[in-house]
Every structure is written in C-alpha cells, then in structure tokens.
Design goal:
The protein is α/β, with parallel strands linked by helices. It folds into 2 domains: 146 residues, P-loop containing nucleotide triphosphate hydrolases (Rossmann fold); 76 residues, no CATH class. It contains 10 helices and 9 strands. The strands form 2 sheets. The protein has a 6-stranded mixed beta sheet with strand order 5-6-7-3-8-9, with helices on both faces. A 3-stranded antiparallel beta sheet has the order 2-1-4, with helices on one face. Strand 6, helix 7 and strand 7 form a beta-alpha-beta unit.
Length: 232
C-alpha cells in the first residue's frame, strides 16, 4: 500500500479553488519533487498534506502505518522565525512534541532522540547556541534535525535551500539525499529544476496542466521538456 495517496484533491484558499482533481501517490523510500510556476499551489498542497488547512474536496490517505503525527516538516522561514530567541537544543527538542502528547516534559528517550538528530546533522557544537545567531545553512540543519525528531518515515520540505549560497545548497541537498538513502521518504517543493531532476525519483508538476510520474517519464513528456527549456 502507498505511504501517502491523494485522491481527487481540490485545493485552494480564500474560498477560491486553485487545483482540482489532483491524484498522486508515493511509496516508502520515494523522493518526490513538487515543481511548477509561482502561485500554482505547491505550498497550499504541502499545507494540506500536513493538515494545516483543509482540502476543498477529495481525500488524503495514509498507509504503511503512517499517521499525520509522524510527518517531519521543514517550512519556509519568515524573518521573525529566523530571529527566534531559543537555543538549538530547545528548537530540536520541540520536534518531539508530537511524541510527548499531553506530558509537560520530555522523556529520556525523547532527549536522546533529539541529541542523535543533532549529531546526525553535524551540529553538535551548536547545541547551546542561540538559533538567531546562526547562519542560514546552520539554521536549516537545525530545522532538519527537528524534523527528524518527529519521524523516521516522511519529511516534507518547502524550498529548503532558499537563500543559501551554492556551497551550502549543495551540502543541504547531499544531506537530504543521504536521509532518503537511509529509507526516509522525501517530498520537496523546489524551484531548482536541475536539483529536482538530479535527486528525485518522481516529479509532481503543478500548473495549468498537472503531471505526476517518474523522473524519466517527466523528461520525456511535453510538459517536462518545456519546463527544462528544451524544444517540444
């Protein structure tokens, strides 16, 4: 059974539909990149998958034992969020909130998981630092460590390399690919089509027309050829 399946989804905001009858599914271990023009509904789709907003129609079905509490999320940051006055440890540990439920404290196991996630992202030396003092790349690693505290199954990333320099961008893509190679399913919104085509196993292209399929099928499609700048 698919890890996540969208059936006839209709999405929108402010009482206006922007996507209708959207269908796709991903299996455990897939790496799905969501691409398309600005304003096409990519972020709206991700918020709907996370149950941060409701679909106007259709269904999102979880399989393979996945629940909505087991999804890690790396969002786009606002300036206020970048300046958040908390320590790296506090932010990463907060990724265990879905595990702790109504308990007013974190368990020993959750603290161990947070430390393992910090070490996995190579930011152990930053544990006591204030988040807002970090570079953009360091902040993204902190948020990815936080996402790892929520899941070992599925991580959703919304433009995870936005604003990063080329070297840090390459490092970030490498880390995400390593997580995927370890079995974590990835869903990533990206404007970087070259990176999408390098790392993804599947492409969901949202626009006036919708494409969902393997990377190779996308490259052979008229939509894919047009979007990567080739002649149709």
């Amino acid at each position: 059974m698919a890890l996540l399946k969208a059936e006839n989804l209709t999405l929108g905001y402010d009482n206006q539909a922007i996507i209708s009858d959207l269908n796709f599914e991903i299996n455990a271990g897939d790496y799905l990149c969501i691409v398309g023009e600005n304003g096409s509904g990519k972020s709206t789709l991700m918020k709907t998958l996370l149950h941060l907003q409701n679909a106007y129609g259709g269904n999102i079905i979880f399989g393979d034992g996945l629940t909505k509490k087991e999804i890690g999320y790396l969002p786009q940051q606002t300036q206020v969020q970048r300046d958040f006055p908390a320590s790296v440890w506090e932010i990463v540990l907060s990724g265990c909130q879905s595990r702790s439920g109504l308990r007013p404290f974190y368990s020993r196991e959750e603290k161990k998981l947070a430390m393992e996630s910090i070490e996995r992202m190579g930011i152990g030396h930053l544990k006591g630092r204030c988040y807002r003092e970090l570079s953009g790349g360091q902040q993204q690693r902190v948020l990815l460590a936080r996402a790892l505290c929520a899941t070992r199954k599925l991580i959703l990333l919304d433009e995870p390399v936005a604003g990063l320099d080329p070297i840090v961008t390459a490092e970030m893509y490498s880390v995400i690919k390593e997580l995927n190679d370890e079995g974590i399913t990835i869903i990533m919104i990206s404007h970087d089509i070259s990176a999408a085509l390098k790392y993804a196993t599947h492409i969901l292209h949202i626009g006036e027309k919708v494409f969902f399929g393997t990377k190779s099928s996308y490259l052979e499609s008229p939509m894919g050829r047009m979007f990567v700048g080739e002649e149709v």
